[in-house]
Amino acid sequence: STVPVNVTVTGAAGQIGYALLFRIASGQMLGPDVRVRLKMLEIPQGVKAAEGTAMELEDCAFPLLAGIDIYDDATQAFDGVNVGLLVGARPRGAGMERGDLLAANGGIFGPQGEAINAGAADDVRILVVGNPANTNALIASAHAPDVPADRFNAMMRLDHNRALAQLALRTGAPVSEISRVTIWGNHSAKQHPDITHALVGGRPAAEVVGDDAWVKGEFVPTVAKRGAAIIDARGASSAASAANAAISHVHDWVLGTPKDDWTSVAMPSDGSYDVPEGLVSSFPASSEGGRWEIVQGLELDDYTRAGIDASVAELVEERDAVKELGLL
Ligand code: NAX
Question: Active-site residues (predicted)?
């Protein structure tokens, strides 16, 4: 196409940003024929490092990269945005209570929501990566009343990919043979990874695994606590895998998911599976024509129902907390 797609990346000078920008510019997110203009947003202290990354992006001479702009102002950074990756967030500092964390992030995602409302293109799609991602997406969406709520997603794809990888390791099947895995609920240790409908080589995953104790005692906690395990091993949180997940999420949102498979997407609930309407919660979802559809009609066993309910209860708590803080 001739008109470049405006892609805004916040937290552009951070470690996920560094792993993300080059892949966007190379065409891996929107396809090999789509030109992109990168709009990088940082806080003032991050601008110099972002400029360094921009120099490296230039030095790649990517044929699809139509331009790079760096901002420390959200209104400018989101002007004309088609795809927004909201990565920059306030991490939990020492001694910070959860309320402080929610308030600090509300101070970021509220104004960014307003900037999106003011300047976004009609087809805008926003993926929130910065934690607490689900509730940050809820806050941003609440501040963008003119943008349909379903254009705000939070990223569960890293959790989804972690689940695929663990199932592949256990069964010996390649990832390409595994489908219909779901992560439900919140992007937190309380997420609910679910293989009850998954297929491995066309057979029910539970049957191939043949060990329910492994699913509940190993698989679920390994996937849910993988982020902490990475920090433990690497001394830094997941970055390349998070960037990879963001690339895949937007790719599938725009270009579609494979037939007969689905992925996991946190989006505003329409009440499906008794998740309270409006909560940004993860569902099994497929994409066609640039829109997510929640996969309907999956039967939930007691274990899955309880896992979803526990994760959703955490989202309700977060929502009530930010409501109380006046952030919604
Ligand atoms: P870094 O600390 O390396 O980078 C964050 C960057 O954001 C910094 O450069 C900072 O200056 C910038 N920033 C802060 N406030 C900003 C604002 N208001 N506007 C623009 N930029 C701002 O963190 P990184 O490792 O890149 O992680 C970024 C976020 O992703 C964190 O919140 C992290 O918790 C979250 N993650 C989410 C994941 C998910 O699956 N949803 C997985 C990976 C990651 O942990």
Answer: 187 (proton acceptor)
